[in-house]
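thought: fold this chain, then report.
action: predict
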Amino acid sequence: MARGPLVKLADLQKWLAEDPDRQAADFLPPGSFARWKYEQGPAYVLRPHRPEDADPEELQEWELTPEKWAEQMAVALVALRHDMKLHALTEGFGRV
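observation:
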């Protein structure tokens, strides 16, 4: 059964451009596939995410097409990278 709403990559990028100091996770709805992947961390998000890379079990469980799966993986990746960079900057562990 499908869970949570889908987040469009263009929308996430727009929201982050408007408020770059906000955690990207705030824009990922609880129960959404993108939020679930984001919470799994880099090992699960930094994998290939083209439609042909879609996990058949995830497609079935989340009722996603390969194209929607790929976009949600991209959303999770952008969100995770943003939040990791933001954390590094606020904690003083990195430079951009």
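thought: worth noting. The two ends are 40 Å apart (CA to CA).
final: tokens above.
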